[in-house]
Amino acid sequence: MSESRLRLHFHFLSLLLLCCVSPSSFAVIKDLVACLPSQIQALTQFKSEFDSHSCNQTDYLNGVWCDYTTGEVTKLQLPSGCLTGVLRHNSSLFELHHLRYLDLSHNNFISSSLPSEFGNLNKLEVLFLSSNGFLGQVPSAFRNLTLLTKLDLSHNDLTGGFPLVQNLTKLKTLSLGDNHFDGQILQPISKLITLKYLYLSFLNISFPIDLRLFSSLKLLLRLDVSGNSISQASLSSHSDIPLNLEFLALSGCDIREFPNIFKILRNIKGIDLSQNRIKGKVPEWLGNLPRLSIMYSQTVFKGNFLFHHSRSTTC
């Protein structure tokens, strides 16, 4: 058998292995034919590194995209709960050097640290690793991911600092909530001036967050610092924070008075003040905010209050 026929034979067998010869899976084989044999081999090996019995095979295949010109895997989006096991440093995942989009969220990487080999995937633009049980620090090799526009490391057990700032000049969305980072991460984050969406809920740091730290983030539209203690001084109407904010979440921040900071946020559309202990009347000036349409609150305020829009929501 010629070398080219051998390669084609291996390619087809690899596809069958990935599909587990499930009739429903053959519908997506045509999309995987665009993948190089070496890429199919890496995908097959990656899947075999984990217990994936709970994984729907069709969904697994639907999560793979290859470039029709180069045959390289450019997008890998695995379904929630598909993989159980340890993500090792020598995983075949890190052979997919042309990945631009990688979503491994909501899997179960038991007792795994974040492998530094993620830094080898330097074409990544989107990286979602939330809710995986990752332990330890973010590797310094993540600095190599200079093309990232979205990064989600939330809902893990990560500790230490955040060493990525200098090179992440394209980052627009950052989610780090529900980890155990030290308080030093806030200052570096304030230098990510391209950010538009920042999610820092339940950081478990030992001191109040001063919202004025984010004054340099002029493009910021959405900020979630729920579940943290907030500096009272940074909630005043004289606070220097991004004025273009459209949504600010302060749920569960042990706030006792209605924050005057909203006076200066003329673009604000949504507010989350639920799970606080705010007493008193709703300030009259709140009804004058021209774009405010949604406020989440479990507090029963005194007095009357009307939004400019009819989409007001109270939880």
UniProtKB/TrEMBL annotation:
Domain Disease resistance R13L4/SHOC-2-like LRR, residue spans: 81-296
Topological category with respect to the lipid bilayer: Single-pass type I membrane protein
Listed Pfam families: LRR_14
GO cellular component: membrane
Superkingdom per UniProt: Eukaryota
Gene3D superfamilies per the UniProt record, alphabetical: Ribonuclease Inhibitor
Coarse class of the protein's main subcellular location: membrane
Keywords: Glycoprotein, Leucine-rich repeat, Membrane, Receptor, Repeat, Signal, Transmembrane, Transmembrane helix
Extent of the signal sequence: 1-27
Compartments where located: Membrane
Protein name: Disease resistance R13L4/SHOC-2-like LRR domain-containing protein
